[in-house]
Amino acid sequence: MFATLIATFVVIGILFAAMAVGVIFSNKPIKGSCGGLATLGMKDGCEICGGDRDACEENTRQESAKRAGTLGKDVLKT
Q1: Tens of pLDDT along the chain (78 residues)?
Q2: Neighbouring residues of 21: CB distance < 8 A, sequence distance ≥ 6
Q3: Quick check: 43 and 51 in contact, CB under 8 A?
Q4: Cα–Cα distance between 65 and 71 in angstroms, integer?
Q5: From CA 75, how far away is CA 67, in angstroms rounded?
Q6: How far does the chain reach from its first CA to its final CA, in angstroms?
Q7: Which positions ≥6 away from 63 have C-beta within 8 Å?
Q8: Rounded to whole angstroms, how far apart are CA atoms 21 and 15?
Q9: How far is C-alpha 52 from the chain's CA centre?
């Protein structure tokens, strides 16, 4: 019975590790499935996009480009 318990924890640990690796290699921000501010009717109060999904995605692209640019500069400094 103890061996079954240990095997269960090992399998669950492997599954968690596999999911983490998948999230890391997908290189996408983690998003909620459904709900959040839109469900509560508070999406209009977003300081960044004001409820416009396209503006939010554009802001995400711009921030990613800035981070990639600084990363490239840091690599070239060394």
Answers
A1: 899 999 999 999 999 999 999 888 887 776 665 656 556 665 555 666 666 666 677 777 777 777 777 766 655 555
A2: none
A3: yes
A4: 10
A5: 12
A6: 55
A7: none
A8: 10
A9: 20
